[in-house]
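Exam revision sheet. Question 4 asks you to relate a sequence to its structure. Input first:
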Amino acid sequence: MKENILRDKSLAFAVRVVNLCKFLMFEHKEYILSKQILRSGTSIGANICEASFGESKPDFIHKLAISQKEINETLYWLELLKLTSYITELQYESLNNEAIELLKLIISSIKTAKRNIINVK
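Answer key, structure tokens:
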């Protein structure tokens, strides 16, 4: 199978989010925020996988745009967790940096796909 950096990075990020949720539930007995970040943080990769089998270029772009929205929401939950002292500054920085790197890759992929549509016409 062909290497897919976006899929691999989103899966690795999802694993980190799942482990963060376990930490929040077991160490802090926090269930509401952990469910929110679990949903948005794992949805990123799921939509990237869906995009890989998009029915068309516009469908591919749409699925990546959903991933972009989900990662933006995840960034919000990370910041909230930091500001409410559920995670440390170090934990926040690590996850936030990884999320921003993933966001940049998604944005770049969307731009490339849009450019390819224009060039085909």
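Marking note for examiners. Helices lie at 5-28, 32-52, 57-83, 89-120.
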